[in-house]
């Protein structure tokens, strides 16, 4: 490992010890930069103190970049993407856009993962991984065949879908049980045939000026988005080839944004897309896409344009000002939604998105498509328990100075608590909500001041699957070597 363990004197130290979210910084004695599984194993065996695993550094919470961390193991040197013996191998440190480029250019395949180019496979896949192809092709973990994992005692094991006994549990725990709990994943294995992406997609990106939205029209917009997803939730619905994001920026931003993508190879795709747009937008006036929410300007996508899939993926994945701003500070909270939204929630959303004391244009509620092929999988088949949700909500704010922390964090917290007021301030699984996404972690779920529901954080993320995750943890990491604020606790 000579030259591949750095300390505070190294010029690269700050880069490896700060999260994408600049609220989170660690001060470890050393950062390990392994280039092979053997080097990962020797770093784990020789660790002196608390070790944190990092792949892309995008964690919404301080699970990696935390003051209590003594050593960081950074996997970005293990980023190879390859194909041999009927298996695709993806290094845990690979970034999503590199994975898409390599898999598609090399073999014409992909995984149905997330949108943002720089997210690391290590955290993303272990948490489930969904994106614009998920309504068509399921979650990333639905295609996972195996994981190579370095265990707490330094041994390396390959656990697969075909394993039995405790190894089967270890594989299963990596299909949505979240990163940082069981060991260090060095590579993910996906079995052929893997997903063939559409050769072309139709993409629409539109803005609606807030000036055109009163409370009734806002409720129609968000309510229409929810209703369309409820009506088209079945895996065999023609709408399963379509995915979208509705970016409800705060009114001070000036606009809200809608991005939709559909597999252009499906017959009638233009009709399905147009029906979706008119169902959600009704008679609202739209303009070509100006900057809204998570995306930068995307002119030329209104009316919808036909684009090669990889080019569309590149465009949507890289056109994200929130990732290119090195001063980024952020707060996020999530909720799965399994039905249409009640009027009380539509009213609360309008109230918080129009509050006059908010002046940050990067405060927003984003709705992401879910359902379709995702719901064809049994809730216990992988660690992702939420299989009948039709979309997800992400409450978030981005800003860049410490003095704005409390106003922005406060807005996200108050908004969330008001939305789920009847359930103790969190989206307790029930008729409408279905808990939270582990890849959008939220430390407040463990805090009785913000979660008064009586439902613990782990049940909000994992529901009935938590018991098996705990048994797996007890078997493979009984000493709790791999831990963070919301890691799986040994049974
Ligand atoms: C801008 C942005 C956009 C996003 N878009 C999407 C999206 O479209 N779809 C979606 O599903 N999610 C999305 N996410 C969430 C993303 O999937 C998670 O933040 C994910 O955990 C990030 O992985 P990482 O490796 O980059 O993060 P890291 O901060 O490096 O790690 C996250 C967690 O995983 C653990 N971990 C990391 N690597 C390993 C490993 N090799 N072995 C074991 N544990 C590991 C860490 O210890 C930590 O607990 C987005 C996040 C951001 C910031």
Automatic annotation (TrEMBL):
* Matches recorded under InterPro entries: BBE, FAD-bd_PCMH, FAD-bd_PCMH-like_sf, FAD-bd_PCMH_sub2, FAD-linked_Oxidoreductase, Oxid_FAD_bind_N
Kindly provide the name given to this protein in its UniProt entry: FAD-binding oxidoreductase
What cofactor does this one take? FAD
Against Pfam families, the record matches this protein to: BBE, FAD_binding_4
Q: Which family does it belong to?
A: Belongs to the oxygen-dependent FAD-linked oxidoreductase family.
Can the keyword S-adenosyl-L-methionine be found in this entry's annotation?
no
**Domain FAD-binding PCMH-type span(s) in chain numbering:** 24-195
User: According to the lineage, what is the superkingdom?
Assistant: Bacteria
């Amino acid at each position: 490992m000579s030259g591949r363990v750095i300390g505070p004197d190294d010029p690269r130290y700050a880069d490896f010890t700060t999260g994408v979210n600049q609220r989170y910084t660690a001060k470890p004695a050393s950062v390990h930069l392994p280039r092979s599984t053997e080097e990962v194993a020797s770093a784990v065996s020789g660790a002196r103190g608390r070790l944190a695993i990092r792949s892309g550094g995008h964690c919404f919470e301080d699970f990696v970049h935390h003051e209590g961390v003594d050593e960081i193991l950074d996997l970005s040197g293990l980023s190879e993407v390859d194909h041999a013996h009927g298996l695709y191998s993806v290094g845990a440190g690979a970034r999503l856009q590199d994975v898409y480029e390599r898999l598609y250019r090399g073999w014409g395949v992909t995984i149905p993962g997330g949108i943002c180019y720089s997210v690391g496979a290590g955290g993303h896949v272990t948490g489930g991984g969904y994106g614009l192809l998920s309504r068509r092709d399921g979650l990333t973990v639905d295609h996972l065949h195996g994981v190579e994992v370095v265990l707490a005692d330094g041994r390396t094991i390959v656990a697969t879908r075909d394993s039995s006994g405790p190894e089967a549990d270890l594989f299963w725990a990596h299909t949505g049980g979240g990163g940082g709990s069981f060991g260090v994943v060095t590579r993910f294995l996906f079995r052929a045939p893997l997903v063939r992406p559409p050769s072309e997609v139709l993409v629409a990106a539109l803005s609606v000026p807030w000036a055109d939205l009163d409370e009734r029209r806002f409720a129609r917009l968000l309510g229409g988005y929810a209703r369309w997803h409820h009506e088209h939730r079945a895996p065999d619905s023609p709408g399963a080839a379509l995915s979208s994001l509705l970016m409800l920026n705060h009114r001070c931003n000036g606009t809200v944004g809608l991005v939709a993508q559909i597999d252009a190879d499906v017959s009638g795709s233009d009709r399905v897309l147009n029906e979706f747009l008119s169902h959600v937008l009704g008679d609202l006036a739209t303009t070509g896409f100006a900057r809204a929410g998570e995306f930068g300007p995307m002119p030329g996508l209104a009316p919808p344009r036909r684009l090669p899939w990889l080019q569309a993926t590149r465009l949507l994945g890289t056109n994200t000002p929130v990732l290119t701003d090195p001063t980024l500070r952020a707060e996020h909270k999530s909720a799965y939604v399994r039905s249409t939204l009640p009027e009380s929630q539509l009213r609360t959303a309008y109230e918080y998105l129009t509050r006059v004391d908010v002046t940050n244009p990067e405060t927003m509620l984003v709705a992401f498509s879910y359902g379709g092929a995702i719901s064809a999988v049994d809730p216990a088949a992988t660690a992702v328990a939420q299989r009948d949700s039709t979309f997800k909500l992400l409450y978030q704010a981005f800003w860049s100075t410490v003095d704005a922390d409390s106003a922005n964090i406060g807005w996200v917290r108050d908004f969330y608590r008001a939305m789920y007021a009847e359930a103790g301030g969190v989206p307790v699984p029930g008729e409408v909500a279905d808990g939270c996404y582990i890849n959008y972690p939220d430390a407040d779920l463990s805090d009785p001041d913000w979660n008064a529901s009586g439902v613990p954080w782990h049940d909000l993320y994992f529901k009935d699957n938590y018991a098996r995750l705990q048994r797996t943890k007890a078997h493979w990491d009984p000493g709790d070597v791999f831990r963070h604020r919301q890691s799986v606790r040994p049974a």
